[in-house]
Structure formats: C-alpha cells, structure tokens
Amino acid sequence: MSKKITRRAFAASSAAAAAVAGFGFKPALAQAYPSRPVTVIVPWGAGGGTDATARIVAALLEKDLGQPFNVVNRTGGSGVVGHSAIATAQPDGYTIGMLTVEISMMHWQGLTELAPKSYTPLALMNEDPPGIQVSSTSPYKTVKELADAIKAAPAGKFKASGTGQGGIWHLALVGWMQAMGLAPNHVAWVPSNGAAPAMQDLAAGGLDLTTCSVPEARAIIEAGKARSLAVMATARNPAFPDVPTLKEAMGIDYSTGAWRGIAGPKGLPAEVATKLTASLKKVYDSKEFKDFMSNRGFGTVWGDAAQFAAFMEKGDAQMGVAMKAAGLSKA
Amino acid sequence: MLNTLTQAFALITTWEVIIAIFAASVYGLVIGSLPGLSATMATALLVPVTFYLSPIAAIATIVAASTMAIFAGDIPGALLRIPGTPASAAYADEAYAMTRKGEAELALGAGVWFSAVGGIAGTLSLMILAPPLAEIALSFSTFEYFWLAFLGLMCATLVARSSPVKAIASMFIGLLVACIGIENPGGVPRFTFGMTNLFGGIEPIPALVGVFAVAQVMRAMLTPEPPPIPRRRFGSILAGQWKLTKKYNWQMTRGNIVGIIIGVLPGAGADMAAWVSYAMSKRFSKEPEKFGTGHVEGLVEAGASNNASIASGWVPSLLFGIPGDTIAAIAIGVLYMKGLNPGPTLFTEKASSMYAIYLMFIIANIIMIPLGIIMIRLASHVLRAPRATVMPVIMLCCAVGSFAIGNNIFGVVIVATFGVIGYVMEENGYPVAAMVLGIVMGTMIEQSFVTSLIKSDGSVLPFFERPIAAILAAMAIGALIWPVLVWVWRKLKRSPVPATSAR
Fold this sequence. Notes:
Chain A is of the alpha/beta class. In chain A, 44% of the residues lie in helices and 17% in strands. A 6-stranded mixed sheet of chain A has the order 2-1-3-10-4-11. A 3-stranded parallel sheet of chain A has the order 7-6-8, sandwiched between helices.
C-alpha cells in the first residue's frame, strides 16, 4: 500500500517537474513569492548612509521572507543611474531598490524623466530633517538671534553650506528663508562636496551656518567645534533632545527632510507589493532596525505604500516650489 | 592607559580578528597587485562582508586590506608600468626603469620596506599627535585648499621627464576631464552630452586604469617584444634596504612628515602626498639628473610619504567623521554600521576599541613585510611569462575591476576610452601621469577657488590674508618664479651650466 502511494506520488511529482521544465515560469509564479533571491538596488556607493540603511533592511527582509536579499550598489550619474535601474527593472518583485529624496528633485532640474510616479512605492523608512548649525565661536546662541541677524544684514552677507548647489540642504535653506519672508538667496549658498566638508569649513571659520542634518554634524558638534541651534522638523530628534524645532524656537512652521524608502518598478503585481510592504512593516518595527537607526541618529518614519506615495507627491510639489524660487528649476 | 592597552590586546587576540586580519591582508595584496583592480574597489567589495563580522574584526579587515592594497599597487607599477593607485602613478616610471635595469627587487623592496616604515610612522602620529593634527585639519578653509591644490598641480611639471610644456598640456587635459559632470560648484551639467552616466563625472581610478593598463596592452600589441630581462634568480628583497634607510634617512623622514601633514587634510590624501614627496625629493636631491632613469631616492621618499598619509588620514575620519579619501569614506561607513561612531567620544568612551585600531595598523604594517615579500616573489614570475599570456589577463582584470566598483557597464567604457586617449598621448610624448594628477586635483582646485570667491564676495584678498593661506601662497608663487630667477641669475653671470633644476 505504502509502496503504491509512493510510486504514484513519484509519478505525480515527475509530471510536475516536467511541467515546470516545459512551461517555463508559469508554475514558478504560482509559487509563493519570493521563490528565488531578490536584488536590492542602492543608487549610492558602499559605505554611505543610504547603503547602510539598505543593508540592514535587506538583512531583515531576508530573515523574514527566507530568501537572500542582495544589495547591489549601482552608482554613477549622481544617483540617476541607480534610480533608473530600479525603474526599468522587470516588475516581478525580484528587483526592488531604495529611493532617496533626489528622485523628487532631479526631474525639476531637467536631469532625468524619472519622478516618484515612475515607481511602485512600498514603504517609507526614514526621514532626516535639516538642522541649523553654527561654529562654536559664533556669537549666536539661539536660532532666533541668528534669524534676527540674518534679517538685519544685507542680502548675501551670511554664507551657508551643507551640500552642492541645488541639493536637499540648499533647498532647506531656501524654504526657511521664504518662510521668514526673505528672498530665497538672502543667505548666499556656498556649494560643498557634501556635509562633512561643509562642517569642516564651518569649524575653520569659512562659513556662518550649515543646514545639513544633525546626525551628519554630530561628530564635529561632539568635538565642541559647532552647535546645532534648531531642526526644521515637526518634532525634536530623540537622539538630540536639546535641539528645538523651528516652530518651538521662533514660531515658524517649516519642515522638510532627506528621506529614504523602498520601492519597486512601476506595475509590481499587487500581491507581491502587499507582501513586501507587510514584511517591511515587520522590519521597521524590529528592535534591530530601531537600534541601528537610533545609533546613527537617523530618524525613523513609517509610511505604507499609499502613505509613501502621498508623501512623495507632497514632497515633490514642495521641492518644485523651492527650486523654482531658487532659480534651479528648468520645468 | 596601560589598562586600556591590555583591553585592546584582548580585543584583537581573538581567532575571528586574527583570521580577519590575515585573510584581508592576503585579499588586499592580491587585489592591489592585479593591474586594473584598485584599492578603493578592494575596500568597497569588503563592505558586505563586514556586515557579518564583529565590530573589531570588521575594522580589522578594512585596515588590513586597504594598507596592503595601497602598497601592492606598487607591484604592477614596477613590473609592468601599470600603477595600482594614483599614488603610485607618481613614481611608476621610475620603478619600471629600475626593473628594466635589473633592479626590480631593490625597487619593490624599497616599496615594501619604506611603506611599512611610513605606515608605522603615520600610526604613531595618529596615536600621539591626533589632537594637534586635528587642529591643523580644522584650520584649513577653502582658501588654504586652493593653494594646496595649486602646489599639487605644480608637481606635474616637477615630476615629468618630458618637456615641461607637454607636462602642463597633459595636466590641462586632466583639468578639462575633471570639468565633466554636474558635481561642480554651479550644479549644472557640463560636457555630459545628455548622457546620464556622465553626470557623476570621471573618477580618477577608471581614468588611471585606462591610461596606464589598457594603453600598455595596446602598446604591447603594436610593438615587438622588448629584449627579455636577463633570466636570473630574483635576489634578496630586503637586502640593501637597511643601507638605503641609512643613506636616505633624511629623505625618508621628510617623506613621513610631509605624508602625515598632507594625510590629515581631508580631500588631499595619499595621492597628493606621493606626488609632492616625489617632486620634493627631485627638487632637493643632490643628483636630480638621475631621476627618471631608475634611481631609488624618489621611491624612498614617496613610498614613505603615501603610507604615512594613509594612517594619519584616519585622524579627521575618527575625530570628526570627515573622510580623507574614498577609502576613508567607506571606512567611516563601516565604523558607523558597527556602532563605533566617529567623534571625540570614540577616544574617551571607547578608548580600548581605539587602541585596538592603532594596534591593527601596526600589525598590518609589520605583516606587510613578510606577506609583501611572498607576493613580490610570486608576481616576479610575470616578468618571464610570455607577453601574449599576460596582456589578455590584464585586459580582463581592467574590465572586471571597472565594472565591479559601481556595477555599471559604463565604467568599462570609460576605461576603454581612456586607454585610447592614453595611448595617443604617450605615443606623442605627453606624460599621462600628469593628466591623472589633473583629474585628481581638478575638482578640488575648482571647488576651492569658486567657493572661496563666493565667500569673499569676489575679493581675492583673503587668499593672501589668512596666515596659512599666505604661507602656502608664498610657497606656490615662489616655486613658480624660482626657475625664472635662476635663469635670469645665470644669464647675468653668463654661467655655462644649463638650468637643469628649472624643471
């Protein structure tokens, strides 16, 4: 009896195997996703903050879904190459990637056709608001004092930095100026090659303020070479509880930030997207993710697929306004 | 302090760390010595591995692999005239000339010995002088960086063996290449021709691989095989190094000091240290006419300098989280990932981890000597291998290496393009090393010049007002007009001696 069943089972399974071999991926689709390794594209280089975030997310997804999630750094073109690789991948769920705030900025500059609508959003994982830092030798102790001095000074007297021309921290400055009713270029922007060189120049006495995020400024602040006066956020960063928000410090309700989220190419099957978003929620709630992010001082923000889409749409419009005001938009 | 040191010892004497150091050293040596694969690539490919290691083991792999890979870049430079890093590009011609003279073991021995000495000197500076060195780093604003980059560019003419005019022309081509992309002060695309891939600009490493490695393969295809180097046993590698140490003691010390100072300045790093030291060595040598003909003096100074700068480059990385170069940027990422956040608290709260990092630097530099010797012996077989076998392998390495760094096929296109450019330039007597220097320095000189002018509202006075800027400006302008003064002086005295030092 048992022998017979075994033989029958064997016959059935060989038929199934033949079917798999003969009809290609159709039975494979019927299998539960994911049935093979998934590639996670990161548009920025190994060792950076985006890379680190993607790697911790990938490792936790792997633990939850039981298939390897391989992080691949597709660099080049100031992030355009990697973002484009995510958008143009086969929408089967086996290639996803990490989007960064640049996707809502680059298309306004006419650098790419890619925009938030080119993707299937899965989850928003992180947002880091800009801070306002001054050198420790600066006379301004609060953001109110600094703002008053900026308002009283002629346009272009104060110099700020934090990233390149038209980068996220530049637009944060523009947004803050507009919120105070000043011209977008009232404080002159000194382009820098990232937050670290800007913080160095701040400490060297070459700048009046920087608008990079507080975690990026952390090491220099802890070295006693700079102070953070405020964050352009809706709430304080738990890692830096002494730094007030703009609203608390001077009653200006302006917030923005550099964010990171997971998305797939447009047209991802609904069941795959739902499964990934559910798994990403587990990742987001896990202790490992929270510990990792708080250790680096990175802010955590959750947004499911629909919330992430709405978040990107709102951010995209806000960026468009700021970039047009700053004369950076070609659209 | 003693207590911390004991704890540090305990941290690194675990099997995981020991295996990590050893495996990463071998990996770094192999990757670094393969033409076309770079130290930056070696470090970038380690990041996924470090994710699964304990914090100390993770840092150990990065420290060991990068230290080894930078030295190992000298090996293909000496044997095949294909430098592994922009740092070894400064003296690759010299080392290759020594190999042609049958002194490969002396050239490579000097590479490993003085690299180790420089590395240890740099580590000691990191241990003892980190706070004052950090003050130097933080006193450099864009005005000072401009003069520094300016001095770096002037080395192109000092180092070149060809006519200074051709060296300057090459350097300007390099500066033009550095203009490509949107990562410039204006944030506007330049020379991208609508190609997304060009937005990020041309990195020095693919250009270096192209102009040296690919161009070398092209030359090999078009020229008859050179007369074989006399077949003989490769002599002792360390013999004679102690003699060199005594003979060139001052050059070595000067190389170490220059390397340490340039190393702590973020953005300058090992590449510039090697160029400046090689140029200084030639400028102040008693026998400058021997440079370029296979003379070891410059190798001693530049080799000591570039490894010293790697260790001291960790000062701004560890204290302020400001990376000195691409490798340091990756290392900082690993430090953060492992909860060893850069900053002064790392030196106080996690002092034992800090000392463990120092110890790993010293260990890596010490084991570099035996492992390096084994690697040199293995690599020396390439001199006897038929060219028809070696060249396709080099080509393959170039393609793999340029793809691996960004998983982007465009990297391979860049390397191929620069291979053609490098070939044409060399055939017409234009030194390609000067072009690489132009690419390395181009971004820095433009960025520092434009941002300085924005900060000073268009006034050039601050370039001369700030004390350190004034000193650097005096050095740069002095070095510029010195040859002219010498020439005028000789004319006046009607001296028959030709102005050899005018280069």
